[in-house]
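Researcher: Go.
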Amino acid sequence: MQASLQVFETVFAFTIVVLLCLLLRKLSIIKTEDNMVFTKLLTQVVLPAVIFLQLSATPIKSGQFLLIFAVFVAGVLSMLLAYFAGCLLRLSKPKTGALMLTSSFGSSALLGYPFIAFSFPNNPEAIADAVLLSELGVGLPMFLLGPAIAIYFGNQTENFSIKKTLFSYFQSPIFIAIVFGIAVSFVPFDRQNNFVAPFFEALKMINGALSILACLILSLNLKFIPLRGIIPLFVISALIQMWFQPFIANIQATIYGLTILQAQVLVLVSSMPSAVLGPVFASRHNCAPETTSALVMAHIVISIVTVPMVFYFIG
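Model: Structure:
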């Protein structure tokens, strides 16, 4: 019950900060062109710092691989369900691809980290689980499957290169932070050492920027997009992404014998709205980009209600 109340408080607090950022955008204190700067800061500086800080503090355990497997299975099953739904509705190939992109892997990096951090305060184990779930169970599959789906279902004939995509991901600051964070976690040393402590204190300061940057980016991306004509797609994608997926994840948590904390983190990450990478892939490969963007924005808006509800009934 306490965890559910904490999630409710986190969602509403996050909403208040997003509304404040929207006001800043309205007053032209922050502008749309600032979005690229904030995004680069988040993905190339803040997220790698957060990932290294959390993973280096807690050695990875074998049971955490079950968490990664569980969220991956839930995402793939959701993607397949979206494909069959598209076939039943006789959607065009691009719209079927858009439905799959917005019904599979959620926004774990942009929204998941702040939600976990505030829902489970001062709990390094929960943050470490969320990092592994997000980067290896959600991020890596999204980088591999997202472009492939957009290319296959879009109106382009471009070939998808797994080698090129993997090489790009393995070169990213986020993946490098994962490797170094896990490696350092097995090295015994005193974190309170006069030479080491300032470094980790600096990482903690950077960690504090995570939530505000996420809110700033979200507020700059949010825009009014009419849902006329795609209401059925919105309902189906929302049900699959934010209800079916956490339900399947929770079933796996029971089967695998995960701890209560692991199950709660798994459900919370699985209930996140669609990943903002979906519209990026859809736009690049002409896979109904307007539909994909509209669905993702709508998901983010209703997640204010759905995330605490799903966590209360499932988590």
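Model: The chain has one domain: 2-313.
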